[in-house]
Design a protein that fits this description.
The complex is a heterodimer.
Chain A: H1 6-14, H2 21-46, H3 49-79, H4 81-84, H5 89-110, H6 121-140, H7 144-157
Helix pairs in contact in A: 2-3, 2-6, 3-5, 5-6
Chain B: H1 2-19, H2 27-32, E1 71-77, E2 83-88, E3 94-98, H3 109-120, E4 130-135, E5 144-149, E6 157-161, E7 164-168, E8 172-177, E9 190-194, E10 208-212, E11 218-223, E12 242-247, E13 253-258, E14 263-268, E15 275-279, E16 291-297, E17 308-309, E18 313-314, H4 323-327, E19 334-338, E20 342-347, E21 361-366, E22 379-386, E23 389-390, E24 395-398, E25 402-403, E26 406-407, E27 411-416, E28 422-426, E29 431-437, H5 438-452
Antiparallel strand pairs in B: 1-29, 2-3, 3-4, 4-5, 6-7, 7-8, 8-9, 10-11, 11-12, 12-13, 14-15, 15-16, 16-19, 17-18, 20-21, 21-22, 22-23, 22-24, 25-26, 27-28, 28-29
The chains are: A mainly alpha, B mainly beta.
Chain lengths: 158, 453
């Protein structure tokens, strides 16, 4: 079974890592948290409570799906050495985890009544989380040339 | 790799806990808040506001709240369905309004969480949506209880003017014909006026108190705000946080006084003949903010909500602010302490058989709340008056509702019966308590024993 394409050999054993479970789930918090930032800015400028209501529901939905994404991500991370060895994987995991923790804190901030639900703490947290989510996406985007190199090393190891 | 990740998470969680509800109420500060010119700390914002939920308990057979040695207490009516308000009729019958709020639209994720917490504290129990008539029997015989008026919509206030009985439901002011001695009203009633809080719409502070003017020409309706601090928008606050004056003949209304976040149990003060009310102030800016209060109500007066409290203490949670209104905000007369949830008010009468220190002044029913740790309220106090103005610290009259961390009962509406005894509606205990002078009790007992022999 000395195939020149190790990816075929590995596929049956990849399990969760071969399925886009994490990739599917992780989109939700990314969109929700960016949406939170936009509605926070709208609330900051308008003081119309509807924007704050959008924000807090977006945050809550984002946090709930992010918790499932984190679980899928963690299982993939633990079970698959070559996922761990991807160049930016650690930074992606770190940025995502910090974004989730800050978003949970932000959901509590957004549960305050009135203007202080957003300005200034909530808006500041939303900005930080949005930056972290963009960073995490950029770091987590698969780079075929890097994947190839990892797989080559892996195959060489066998 | 997990190491820095875990470390970051741990720091975040620790920081969150530090900011969370670990802010204890200060008992000495609470005491310093009674009366006029209360000691107000700086407002704070929380991740998790301080909270202490006392789970609802129940009274054991023969168990009662506590009263001082000069008074005695007994149950007048039991087995009720969330009694909130008491209204004595001229013939000695007593109306007990059994009610609770309707389920509310879930505006925020917080509402999904607060529902079960409030249910744990006994606030979600189903109200009877009816009024029970209690006819006291002579001697020590138990009072007779019958259903007087049924199928109401979260009723609270009741007022009798001549042969017209007015009931303030959560959504409308209703009128029913009543003749002295009636024990049941079967007619559907006539709607006088729609009140803020239509069915199915958000109706946050749902209780609508009712008071008739001494000449019966006007009816005053207390309408609470539709939010803690405008988080549901100012449009939702139309004709709210106010006392409305309804012209009985025409049904037209105007705002009599405003800026009163949740005014309840308006009463006429017997010496000055001024209107007084108890008001629940705003939450979530600290365990010792903002004290609930007892105040006289001026025609056209503005009392601060939502823009400010106790005069010119601006609340930064409200945008846009209204400096013009803040400038004219009146300072309430008497602070009762923060988060006591004052809902019941009755002035004692000059010929009261009560002990001398409880004759001139007002009894206040403090429902208690979960917005403070340790909890405050859960008792009935007496605020002494002199020449129509509060004079002195409040005196505990009925307590022991909160024992062993459980709320066996929670006092709400108050009234005086014909003999001058104080009646207390207990919505968690589903009881109406009767508090009278202990000395008078001895007299009654000896009379009863004489009759028996």
């Amino acid at each position: 079974m000395s195939s020149p394409a190790p990816i075929i050999l590995d596929a049956p054993r990849l399990g969760l890592a071969s399925q886009p479970v994490y990739a599917t789930l992780v989109q939700f918090p990314a969109v929700c948290f960016l949406g939170t930032l936009i509605s926070d800015i709208a609330y900051w400028r308008s003081a119309n409570y509807l924007w704050e209501t959008f924000s807090v529901w977006l945050l809550t939905a984002g946090c709930i799906v992010a918790a499932f994404a984190a679980l899928a991500g963690l299982l993939t991370w633990i079970r698959h050495r070559h996922v761990r060895s991807l160049r930016y994987a650690k930074l992606h995991a770190l940025a995502s985890a910090v974004a989730l923790v800050l978003s949970i804190v932000n959901a509590f901030v957004h549960s305050r009544d009135g203007y202080v639900a957003v300005v200034p703490d909530g808006l500041a947290l939303s900005i930080i989380v949005a930056i972290l989510m963009v960073l995490a996406t950029w770091l987590g985007w698969p780079r075929p040339h890097l994947v190839q190199r990892v797989q080559s090393t892996h195959a060489g190891g066998l | 790799m997990t190491h820095p990740l875990l470390k970051t998470s741990a720091i975040m969680i620790a920081a969150a806990c530090a900011l969370a509800g670990c802010d204890k109420g200060d008992p000495s500060r609470q005491a310093a808040q009674y009366g006029n010119g209360p000691d107000l700390p700086a407002a704070k914002n929380y991740l998790l506001p301080p909270m202490k939920v006392a789970p609802a308990g129940s009274w054991q057979q023969g168990e009662t709240p506590r009263v001082p040695a000069s008074l005695k207490i007994s149950a007048l009516a039991t087995g009720l369905m969330h009694p909130r308000f008491i209204y004595p009729l001229p013939n000695g019958d007593i109306l007990v309004v059994e009610s609770n709020g309707q389920s509310q639209p879930k505006m925020r994720p917080k509402d999904l969480i607060m529902g079960p917490i409030q249910a744990y504290g006994g606030s979600a129990a189903k109200g009877g949506n009816r009024i029970t008539l209690v006819r006291p029997a002579g001697g020590n015989a138990p009072a007779r209880q019958t259903v007087f008026l049924d199928n109401l919509k979260s009723p609270f206030g009741v007022a009798l003017v001549g042969n017209e009985l007015y009931v303030a439901n959560a959504d409308a002011l209703m009128r029913y014909p009543y003749n002295e001695g009636d024990t049941k009203i079967t007619g559907p009633g006539t709607k006088v006026l729609d009140l803020p809080g239509a069915e199915g719409k958000l109706n946050h502070h749902w209780t609508k108190s009712l008071l008739a003017s001494p000449d019966g020409s006007k009816l005053y309706v207390g309408v609470g705000s539709n939010s803690n601090i405008t988080e549901n928008g100012m449009e939702a606050e139309m004709n709210r946080a106010a006392i409305l004056e309804v012209d009985r003949a025409s049904g037209a209304f105007r705002v009599f006084a405003s800026g009163l976040r949740n005014p309840n149990s308006m009463q006429w003060e017997p010496t000055s003949h001024a209107m007084w009310t108890v008001v629940n102030e705003r939450d979530e800016i600290g365990p010792d903010l903002v004290p609930d209060y007892l105040t006289s109500v001026r025609d056209g007066g503005f009392y601060g909500w939502p823009y400010s409290y106790y005069g010119q203490h601006v609340d930064p949670r409200v945008k846009p602010q209204r400096p013009d209104l803040v400038a004219k905000a009146l300072v309430p007369d008497y602070a009762l302490g923060s988060h006591v949830a004052s809902l019941g008010l009755v002035f004692n009468r000059p010929d009261s058989p009560m002990p001398p220190n409880l004759r001139e002044g007002a009894f206040v029913g403090e429902h208690g709340s979960w917005d403070r740790d340790p909890p405050s309220g859960y008792k009935v106090v007496f605020v002494p008056f002199h020449d129509g103005k509060p004079a002195g610290k409040p005196i505990d009259v009925v307590s022991g509702f909160l024992t062993g961390g459980h709320a066996k009962g929670r006092p709400v509406g108050l009234a005086l019966d014909q003999s001058g005894a104080l009646l207390v509606a207990d919505d968690v205990g589903n009881t109406v308590w009767r508090v009278s002078a202990a000395a008078a009790a001895t007299v009654t007992a000896s009379v009863a024993s004489t009759t028996a022999h």
